[in-house]
Amino acid sequence: MPTDSRVLIDHIRELIATPSVSSVSPEWDTPNTTVINNLAGRLESAGWQVEIQDIPDKPGKQNLIATLGKDLSNHLDNKEQGTNEAENKVGNQVENKGLVLSGHTDTVPCDDVLWTSDPFTLAEREQRLYGLGSADMKSFLAIAMHACANIDPQKLTAPVILLATADEESSMAGARALAAAGKPAARYAIIGEPTGLQPIRMHKGIFMESITVKGQSGHSSDPGLGNNALDGMQTVINELQTWRDELRTGPLNEAFKVPYSTLNLGHIHGGDNPNRICGECELQIDLRFVPSLNKAELRAELHQRLTQQLRNHDPELKLTFNSLFDGTQPMHTKAESELIKAAEAMTGQQSGAVSYATEAPFLTSLGMDVVVLGPGSIDQAHQPDEFLPLEQIQPTIEIIQGLIKRFCMA
Prior knowledge:
Blueprint: H1 3-16, H2 33-45, E1 49-54, E2 62-68, H3 73-81, H4 85-94, E3 99-104, E4 123-125, E5 128-130, H5 138-147, E6 160-165, H6 173-181, E7 188-191, E8 200-203, E9 205-214, E10 218-219, H7 229-248, E11 262-270, E12 276-277, E13 280-289, H8 295-313, E14 318-328, E15 331-332, H9 338-347, E16 352-354, H10 360-364, E17 369-372, E18 387-389, H11 393-408
Parallel strand pairs: 3-6, 3-7, 7-17, 8-16
Antiparallel strand pairs: 1-2, 2-6, 4-5, 5-18, 8-15, 9-13, 9-14, 10-12, 11-13
Helix pairs in contact: 1-5, 3-4, 5-11, 7-8, 9-11
């Protein structure tokens, strides 16, 4: 294996060896600062301008924004503040430039007893790299840096921006913080999630909700002593199943393997003993919806439908909602986008759609066209013995370099 490839793999090894788990369960959650510091140190040594952003209300969680070439953010600020035609002209020229290479630094938790080898020690076998985050998606950050190693910043007409985010696997707090800050400023973005190097231009939106019915507990020998929350939850579930059937009929998007929006009843618990009337019952659901639908409107419809049905069943029962995951809007980059056309030409694959969610909608909200495109398979993500095929590393480097040449050296 060439020496420069060994340097890249050694960097991947360092990132895999650094735990950066994000989880909604505090006992599993860990900081990502060590990974951020690793990336920042290497990037600064290579001449990148590095900014580290602390995530509000998330101690130990950070984003990294590293820029190679002229940073356009100040020019964009000038456009907003400018009072003369010359300043506005500069702003108009720069707002359509720049390429973001984006990856998240966190992984899901893992059960190491299910792994053949230590998930935090990179293992090379069968022409694969095994380790937690090898496919999803620490390796992409190292590969993207490696792809930029020999770029002369003076030859860049638009910046290359490496973006490393926090908590994608749990809350997407890192991407939310970036969107709130209006950073970074660029026209195009690649998110290196594992797609087998197929360009992805659409994915579904998602949110997760907890639904609780509260009644009154009592001795089971006399139903009049209480008000059974499980009976109320049956009404809630019936309405959810009705809505689920309606969603199956449309709107449809045939680009997706499952062309309709899906509603999953994922977890339920209630009551505490068979001889007590159930006083409280909670159901947790997720909804994944096609790009023509809107997250806020769907959540409002969920609340309205269930509130009305439970009121009709028994107005004495109380219904509450809690957002488990605020979620994301769908991603939908137009097929005519220059980024999509370039990615298709460089990979030799037609762009497609996936049902899982990414940070793409947050970058889209900043005015970027986004393609999800990276090495490895989503089938390996969140699995024991997660791996990245070695054969996909060099093509990834070449795709990144080709897109940089196309959009940052024109």
